[in-house]
Amino acid sequence: MKVYLGVDVGSVTTKVVALDEEEKVLASLYLRTQGRPIEAIQEGLKLIQEMLPSGVEVAGAGTTGSARYLAGVVAGADTIKNEITAHAVGALHFVPDVQTIIEIGGQDSKIIILRDGVVTDFGMNTVCAAGTGSFLDHQALRLNISIEEFGPLALQSKTPVRIAGRCTVFAESDMVHKQQVGHSKEDILYGLCDALVRNYLNNVALGKETLPPVVFQGGVAFNIGIRRALEEVLKTPIIVPPHHESMGAIGAALLAKEMVAGRGTSFKGFEVSQVKYRTTSFECKACANLCEIAQLSTNGKVLARWGGRCDMWERTSVKS
Fold first, then answer.
1. Residue 307 phi/psi, 5° resolution?
2. What are the tens digits of pLDDT across the range 123-155?
3. CA 85 to CA 49: how far, in whole Å?
4. What stretch of H or E contains 72?
5. Closest Cα partner for 140 from 200, 189, 198?
6. What pTM was estimated for this model as a whole?
7. Second label for 117, Cα 20 to 30 Å away, from 78, 285, 287, 298?
């Protein structure tokens, strides 16, 4: 059996999927990155191997996410793609006529506009956390509930309150005020859902034409309160596809399958989960920018360098 691997390494979570030759998901896992992307990649590959039937052949591998280059070097990826492309390919696989993709993750959020299966526009929010999953995590902690309880409790709201959600600091103060004047926890939770959606649409989606079908993916799509709030504002059904939390990894695996058609894979094997890697950095003095260049090495051999404003180090053939 041939399988195709996709690895999506984000700042909060790492996702790994394996697709069969018919592009069906054979195995999928979702790990916390915890600021240690190399360890998360290795752990993900080790666990996904255990989930697969014995004797499978990895015919291709692709990476995406904020640490896609690092993941690509560690795994031996056949293709390394940005998150916009990977998420679009993943969504099109499940909803071929999708026109708007709403993706909200732990630390960033994005909107992708497609027309006739082609990405025509996109927007991202990587500065403020008020439109991301970490905003909900933090507020759930303050209200002493688990993030899994957040959505179901929010849907029990009878009279949602308006929370100032343009900034996490203001949202917290406003939430405390609403608690002090006696609003119920359920009404506050749905108010937070409304605040996140309002912030997302006023920042990430500002100026974008959000036409249906609308697909909602990313970890926050687990929250049924956010889904309801999006439907109320956009006045259209919101589609949450299967494996929505791993859509970037699915897209990377599909792109890898396309890339390796008719040739072999560069995948280094599941054994990389046992390799000891070391990350160091140095300051490039080739120009006045003084870029900090990161490098990945193992057994004294440098595997890759990146981080410069130009491609001086990326294009250099790295030798020990």
1. 115, -5
2. 987 556 555 777 788 788 878 888 888 899 999
3. 26
4. helix 68-75
5. 189
6. 0.86
7. 78
